Every structure is written in C-alpha cells, then in structure tokens.
Amino acid sequence: MTGMEMRAIVLDGPGEPEDLRVRRVPVPDPEPGWVRIKVEAFGLNRSEYHLRAGLATNARFPVIPGIEATGTVDAAPGGEFAPGQQVVAMMGGMGREFDGGYAEYTVVPAACVIPVRTGLDWATLGALPEMLQTAHGSLHTGLAIEPGQTVLIRGGTSSVGVAAAVLAKEHGLTVFSTTRSPERTAVLRDLGVDHPIVDDGNVAEKVREILPGGVNAALELVGTNVLPDTLKATAVHGTVCFTGMLSDHWTIPDFYPIGYLPNGVRLTAYGGESTDLPAETFQRYVDLVAEGKLPIRIDRVFGMDEIGAAHRIMQDGQAVGKLVVRVD
C-alpha cells in the first residue's frame, strides 16, 4: 500500500485527553516477520493513559498509541498468516517502541498476533485481547489459582478486574471484589462476584469479617498505596499478585520486607506478553463469551473521532469494564 494514507491517532508527546486527534498518515508496509492488520476495533488500556500522561519510561514520540488491536490480516510477507484471517494483536512493544493499534492499519511482529475464529461483533472481540491476557496471566501465572480457593480482586470494576472475577468464577473460585462506589456493588453481583466489598481503605477488615483466616489469593490492581491492606487480607501461605496501578502508585519507598510483608504471605507480580495467553486458551475464552457463558462487560464503544472523550473517561475512572473504539 505504498503511497496510500490512513486515519490514525498520533501522539507527539505527553498531553491531555483532548489533545488526541485523528490525522492522516501513510499506511505502513510490513517486512518479513511482521504482519499488517486492518484494524476493526481496539480496546483502551491504562498503559495508554500512562503513555499520554508522560508516565511511561520506554516511549518514543511521535507514536501511534495502542497496545492491542483486533481485525483481519492485510499482509504477511513471511507467510505466518493468510490474508483475511481474523486475528488479535497485543503487547511486544506495540504503541511504545513502534506504532500501535490506534489506526486503520497497524504493523506488528508476527509473534504478537493470535489467530481467532468467531462470529462475535468487532467491538466485543476488540474488548478481549489485553483484558483476557492480563487477567488470565495474573490468575494462573501470578497466583496459580486452584478450584475451591478464595480470591480477592482489588480494583474490581476496572476492565481487568471485571475479567479476573469472571475467569476466577469460571475456574471454580469464590470471589471477593472491591469498588469504591457503593452503587457499583450490584454490577459486581451481576458478574457473579460472591462478596462485593466497598473499599473505604479497610478491605482486610471487611474480608476477615466474612473469612476470618483471609483469602488464598489476592490480585492487586490499585497500586502500592493500598498493597499493605491487601496483604493483610491474605491468609498465611496465600499469595498476592501485583499487576495494576490504577492509583498511579507504582513503587514502595524504603521497602523492608520483614516489616512490610505479613508472616507467610507471598508477594508476586505479573506483567505479561501475548505469548502468555496460548491461542487455544484465547479461543476457548472467546467461544465462552460467544455462548454467553463468560459475561465480559463493555462500558462504552466509541468512534475514532471520540478518542479524547474516551481517554477522559478512562483517566477519571468513570468506566465499569472495558472501553472500546470501533474503527469505521
């Protein structure tokens, strides 16, 4: 497509949500080992907020943001995928080290691409890749969950929190999940959460009122500012996985493990790649969504021209579930 143009959202440097605009730029050409995807939809992720806000450490500008994309293969010089094949792509440097998914076409390494077969609409499929990858990896790699266990999800109305609750229930766990808004507890119950908890800063106390011994596993999506409380909610020999920083608190100053960690509670972390979500596992999840057995929540779907409004909603924490942009 040399010489042809496409619509894309280009970020020249850190700025406000309203600074995001659609431009016309050249359609990128793939080299062998890379795949050009005609993008139909892409989900919004906290990582892209960090990039736009100037909090990312591995960014280069100008760049087309977007750590995920969903669509069809337009070209694959290496023959890894067939033209027209349904695929999703995520991570591997997308939207940071090279241009990402906020565009009509994106070119990504073949290793970032996962094939999929589904009749789901593009917006629904576009909500799934990064959300499911992060939730799946956090639960199975970070926490090594087992059926019959209990799990606490801190930051439960975020897109990953919603997905983690649904996947944990599908795996046979009892789920505790938090929200700062009392009116959102009904949403958590509708997703199958057994114990919705209003987060007033004392989640551990509320968890132990229900389960005196504490939970077997806890997924931290809020940040290091609440991590001590999450650790206190976890049982001896239980595990806390640090995955998210919704509060933008990333580090622990003057970390002293013996004073910080409760006796016998393990602390792990997860920050995975597309390879952590095998194609067959992703396909199984997509099939469950299509069959109505995996109730993934999409908060809103936007057009490309509404990207500023979408980022504002993400930044202000107004969404319950995933925000998706449909490319049309």
Automatic annotation (TrEMBL):
The keyword NADP applies. Keywords: NADP, Oxidoreductase. It comes from the Bacteria. Residues 15-325 form the Enoyl reductase (ER) domain. One of its GO terms (molecular function) is NADPH binding. InterPro entries: ADH-like_N (IPR013154), ER (IPR020843), GroES-like_sf (IPR011032), NAD(P)-bd_dom_sf (IPR036291). Pfam families: ADH_N, ADH_zinc_N_2. The keyword Oxidoreductase applies. This is NADPH:quinone reductase.
